[in-house]
Amino acid sequence: MINVGIIGAGRIGQVHAKSILSGVPQAHILAIADPYMKPAVAEWAKASGIENVYTDYKKILEDERIDAVLICASTNLHAQLSLEAIAAGKHIFCEKPIDQSVEKIEEVKAALAASPKKLIYQVGFNRRYDHNYRAMRDAVAAGKIGEVQYVRVSSRDPEPPPAEYAAVSGGIFMDMMIHDLDMVRYLSGQEVVELYAQGACLIDPAIGEAGDVDTATVTLKLSNGALATIDGSRKAVYGYDQRGEVFGSKGCVVNANDSNSNIVISTVDGVTAEKPLWFFLERYMGSYQAEVREFIDCIIQGKEPRVGIEDGLVSIKLALACSKSLREDRPVRVDEL
Amino acid sequence: MINVGIIGAGRIGQVHAKSILSGVPQAHILAIADPYMKPAVAEWAKASGIENVYTDYKKILEDERIDAVLICASTNLHAQLSLEAIAAGKHIFCEKPIDQSVEKIEEVKAALAASPKKLIYQVGFNRRYDHNYRAMRDAVAAGKIGEVQYVRVSSRDPEPPPAEYAAVSGGIFMDMMIHDLDMVRYLSGQEVVELYAQGACLIDPAIGEAGDVDTATVTLKLSNGALATIDGSRKAVYGYDQRGEVFGSKGCVVNANDSNSNIVISTVDGVTAEKPLWFFLERYMGSYQAEVREFIDCIIQGKEPRVGIEDGLVSIKLALACSKSLREDRPVRVDEL
Amino acid sequence: MINVGIIGAGRIGQVHAKSILSGVPQAHILAIADPYMKPAVAEWAKASGIENVYTDYKKILEDERIDAVLICASTNLHAQLSLEAIAAGKHIFCEKPIDQSVEKIEEVKAALAASPKKLIYQVGFNRRYDHNYRAMRDAVAAGKIGEVQYVRVSSRDPEPPPAEYAAVSGGIFMDMMIHDLDMVRYLSGQEVVELYAQGACLIDPAIGEAGDVDTATVTLKLSNGALATIDGSRKAVYGYDQRGEVFGSKGCVVNANDSNSNIVISTVDGVTAEKPLWFFLERYMGSYQAEVREFIDCIIQGKEPRVGIEDGLVSIKLALACSKSLREDRPVRVDEL
Amino acid sequence: MINVGIIGAGRIGQVHAKSILSGVPQAHILAIADPYMKPAVAEWAKASGIENVYTDYKKILEDERIDAVLICASTNLHAQLSLEAIAAGKHIFCEKPIDQSVEKIEEVKAALAASPKKLIYQVGFNRRYDHNYRAMRDAVAAGKIGEVQYVRVSSRDPEPPPAEYAAVSGGIFMDMMIHDLDMVRYLSGQEVVELYAQGACLIDPAIGEAGDVDTATVTLKLSNGALATIDGSRKAVYGYDQRGEVFGSKGCVVNANDSNSNIVISTVDGVTAEKPLWFFLERYMGSYQAEVREFIDCIIQGKEPRVGIEDGLVSIKLALACSKSLREDRPVRVDEL
Predict the structure, then answer these.
(1) What is the pTM of this model?
(2) How far apart are CA B226 and CA B221, in angstroms?
(3) B202 interaction partners in chain C (CB closer than 8 Å)
(4) Chain B partners (3+ C-beta pairs within 8 A)
(5) d(CA D232, nearest CA chain C) in Å
(6) 3-class DSSP state for residue B217?
(7) Which site among B72, C53, D84, D87 is 20 to 30 Å from B277 CA-CA?
(8) Is A263 in contact with B23 (Cβ distance < 8 A)?
(9) Of B151, B153, B180, B202, which to mutate for an interface test with C (greatest number of C Cβ within 10 Å)?
(10) Closest partner residue to A268 among C237, C241, C271, by Cβ?
């Protein structure tokens, strides 16, 4: 049994807590901490058998019974909390992104390498655990489509965030398309060598005024010579649109969106299926549980998680390269950063 | 908080227990009983916070703290346990079928009517809670396809049961197609007036020797004049095939099978999607949790469940009418029984 | 080069003429005859290079240059024209049904057998030449789904005919579902042993008053023990709905409707594809050309067509058995007729 | 009746001849010319009622009875033949591309503008007449998806051409992806402002040695601010893959590939549909007839074709911009050319 502490009791912290409670029997949540702990959340935690509810996360790090922490605090604290947790000898599941700065992630990476105890460090790129994307990756890895020649990721949110958010989040590449950049690497099994980003503000002018774009494409060259494109949008009125394709020498694999049901209604108006699931938590709920389950398994079995600190580092570099490419309207090599 | 006791700790008893533990927070499992309780199950129950593990179900009925019972024992005990639970004033969730005899179900129905305390009695026709079938029913009930004129249910198991099972289960109509007979009523919102059943033994000769068929169709006339067909098979090599259609004056609604993922691979061999889910527990897992959740909600809110004792009674009559029709090779009116 | 005469210049006669002109280069239409030949049709025929336009079909039968005739006159004349064409030594393509009476078809069959010249006699069951149904049949014949255990044919017209038509056409089984009865035989490669028909009048009361039904199902037992169902409707508001399924020991094969295009539009209202093609001529146009092409090929190569007089005879027996079953509300063995 | 002459009796010349013979009744082919006219083709032409079969195309231009010519000669002759046909006062249907040089097309454009007789000049971008792409365009033009924000065109040939062909054809952008560049303009209704092309040689090294690529992507900025991507490959082992998507403020429209049939077979190996049609002539046959029909209609009604000389000119500029972008690894503005 692995004892776990959760740092941050906001939306994603609660998601992980529920995942563990309902589906990860080898883990026991010993404590949850949040400086702004809401009474309702504290009450729910107690009722769910989480014995310790703190406002100070340090109590978690100091508790010797706790083997592992889930860092679910705000992004700007991820790196610092990671460093402290490493110092305390805890295994770490850290929400993405680790940080918006390459340097800070390098610092965490160095601390991890220097830790006398071998620590599991997993980053919350949940899509790698999604049933559809994992099935695509498995098909590629099994050689079913041969050598990868082209990858496409199409990614559209149902609604744009407030413009203020775009300003602090690091922008569309950092807060949204970072998942898609990671998917290109995951699906292809290749590294990105060079990329070119285009952007436009077509949905909400306030996003443009905040210095960001709401529609973007990225074209990428991969280490095996393959090409890739990503197209992203902040607003698909029909729901959360998450599709992709990998094409190779022996064929291609595509996925489709998930819906509430697979019924199809035919009337005088057409042949109509349900829209994609609307909310990312609903769409990716299975993946959230799967990633936490793997985290606990990795601790128990001492194996590497599907997505480690290097993946967290590379994804940030790619997001920064996209911003640079968009700003300078030119292809940018990843090793420029 | 509703206190619950589970009678029967076999496969389906465990399914319901897990559903409650992970997704029905308003219910608390106070006890589970099974005359042949396996040590591993007892241990799992304890670890999951189920305080009382019995071999004698009477201890559950006698426990005044317990508001409701889930009857998950073998079919031949359902009616007797129902009567005892009614006498003990417990709300009842009873696995299907209530019994293979109309008389015994009538007895339960009478006892229920005579109970001084208004008791919820829900029957385990889980498919009524399935996301696909519920979406079909909702579309029909919302008038999207107009007046119902035809219903089709296609239902195929991945593997036939042992021939011995077919002999005691009441046969294909009683143990398998009873779900499909219920689906015709549920999807259409109509009663069955007359039906005609065909059967053949094409899969396993031992099933025929045991006096049953493994392939069957049923043609039905509904109370509003609409027609219906059911086709059933004990063995679809590609997986658990569960499809249906409702056709009406304004259109039709169909569903499709669920799969592990929705990826599609194109190669020289064709354009290939995943097979349907193989196992009924996997395919209908969501519906098992949904039906137990509704049971608890009905108790709390004093409302009628989606599927009550009358539905349990009618489904048995329909299964018996099918057997009679097959035996006599003629259409049988349901009111003949 | 095969010289052809067309008897009957109505809708279907023109369809066949155009098929030959545009896609059957080995056939030359030497004459077309119709007692009520419309001037516009005569003009079109001349402009298309059909040299002889007659009101009297006997001129075609008497013309020694003509090798083959297409009988496209009204149904009640098919048998008589067949007999005369056999006497004149012409190969015959006869529109379905050959006749509504078994005796008359037997007469044609006998005359054909007695003909000193071996004559090709093909019946216009065009669906056997349809790309989707042929692909299904080919898959079944290639053993891809193993032994056939169940066949389903779903068949819905976009609009009911006038009630007067239903009265003279022989009813829904004779004028519409005869195609579906033929499809059960074609797809399965089996003969029908027994069937049971249900009918209802749910669409147009005038059809009921004319003594017919507009909604029907047929349940069938096949010669290899397999079962089958057909569901038919005179009115699917979303278009001409033509679907089917063959299920067997190694899998199943289904088809889907054809549409004008395969685009899918996603909006706030849903994910919408195009409706099925509306009109049978549009839906089955390819099959009309393919059947005439095979007719000419069979003449040239002296081989048997995919659908001969025996198929025409059996289909009538099946349609009559359906009517009898519906009238008497009981299963009817085909050998009762 | 429009009299037509066909210049060039190779594959595409024959396709157009057959289209007219079988489906464009208002046009009459008076002559066909080819310096290397094959005897079999000459014979077929005669048998099909084409009275004049020449080796010298000038006889067509000199024939005053001929209203219109179809230029189906080799690409390097298109511009010169266009100029001569304009001088002869003929309406022109010219196969794509008009030429590989912007200057030569400008010359044709100027001659056309200077012609005293208003001449129809249509370019053979047949995909604009394809049922799927036309339905997409119609949906976009009808405002069903709102303002266009993103366009995607995926285009894969089933087999690469010989490397020698790539060397003279102008390369992948000029001979293959020119269609896709045109599709971006057609589907969006927008002009291309800037583009960036990536290429790789992953299929046939000989293509790389000939100075071309066999895998490519193009990222584009459109005049309304929308973005677009094209991904192209010379070899999809599963067939001719032709898909696209237009995304906008109110939704998106996608298409799917066409197949020989729409049957789906489920076995232990999966749920398998047919592969896309293999050959472009088969896939786009309907569009070839539709474009020639529109050409004749435009002549008769004096209206503009869906694709005129300006479209021919712009597509060449885009293909040249792609080559330049690939060569210089930088985004290229179209007005640079």
Answers:
(1) 0.95
(2) 6
(3) 147, 149, 225-226, 249
(4) A, C, D
(5) 20
(6) strand
(7) B72
(8) no
(9) B202
(10) C237
Q: Per CB distance under 8 Å, which residues of A are interface residues toward B?
A: 21-23, 25, 131-132, 134-136, 139, 144-145, 250-258, 260-268, 274
**Quick one: closest CA in C to A275, which residue?**
C270
Task: Tell me, rounded to whole angstroms, the distance of Cα A316 from its chain centroid.
Answer: 12
Helices C309-328 & C102-114 angle (0-180, nearest 10): 160
Copy the structure tokens of residue B42. 């007892």
Distance (Å, rounded) from C-alpha B264 to C-alpha B261? Answer: 9
Nearest residue to C246 (alpha-carbon basis) of C152, C144, C131, C179: C152
**DSSP state letter for D143:** T
Give the distance from residue D202's alpha carbon to the nearest chain A alpha carbon, in angstroms: 7
List of residues 6+ apart from C57 with CB closer than 8 A = C7, C33, C34, C35, C73, C81
User: Residue B272's Cα: distance from chain center in Å?
Assistant: 32
SS3 (DSSP) at A77: helix
* Cβ-based interface (< 8 Å): residues of B facing D: 236-239, 241, 259, 266-276
Preferred mutation among B144, B214, B237 to probe C, highest tally of C CBs within 10 A: B237
CA distance B152 to chain C (A): 9
CA distance D213 to chain C (A): 31
Q: Tokens at residue C16, please? A: 């066949």
Would you give the DSSP letter of residue D256?
-
A180/A186 Cα distance (integer angstroms):
9
Retrieve residue A288's tokens.
């959230």
Minimal CA separation from C272 to chain D, in Å: 9
Q: Residue B201: enclosing H or E segment and its boundaries?
A: none
The encoded tokens of residue B165 equal 């099972």
User: Which residues on chain D are in Cβ contact (under 8 Å) with C266?
Assistant: 251-254
Residue corresponding to tokens 């107690």: A46
Cβ <8 Å between B272 and D272: yes
C76: amino acid identity, one letter = N
Q: Is there a contact between B145 and A265 if contact means CB atoms under 8 Å apart?
A: yes
Contacts of A240 in chain C (CB under 8 A): none
Q: Which of B243, B152, B213 is nearest to C225 (CA)?
A: B213
**All domains in chain C, ordered by first residue:** 2-119 (3.40.50.720), 128-286+315-336 (3.30.360.10)
Kindly state the tokens that stand for D104: 């030569």
The per-residue pLDDT for range D207-255, each reduced to its tens digit, is: 999 999 999 999 999 999 999 999 999 999 999 999 999 999 999 999 9
Whole-angstrom Cα distance, residue C270 to residue A257?
Answer: 13
A161 DSSP β-pair partners: none
Residue A221 in contact with residue A227, Cβ under 8 Å? Answer: yes
CB atoms within 10 A of CB C53: 18
Yes or no, beta carbons of B225 and C202 under 8 Å apart = yes
Number of Cβ within 10 Å of residue D268's Cβ equals 10
Q: What string of pLDDT tens digits covers the 337 residues of chain A? A: 999 999 999 999 999 999 998 889 899 999 999 999 999 999 999 888 899 999 999 999 999 999 999 999 999 999 999 999 999 999 999 999 999 999 999 999 999 999 999 999 999 999 999 999 999 999 999 999 999 999 999 999 999 999 888 778 889 999 999 999 999 999 999 999 999 999 999 999 999 999 999 999 999 999 999 999 999 999 999 999 999 999 999 999 999 999 999 999 999 999 999 999 998 989 999 999 999 999 999 999 999 999 999 999 999 999 999 999 999 999 999 999 8
- Terminal-to-terminal C-alpha distance of chain A: 42
Q: How far is CA C219 from CA B246, C210, D99, in A?
A: 18, 24, 64
Asked whether the beta carbons of C7 and C71 are under 8 A apart, the reply is yes
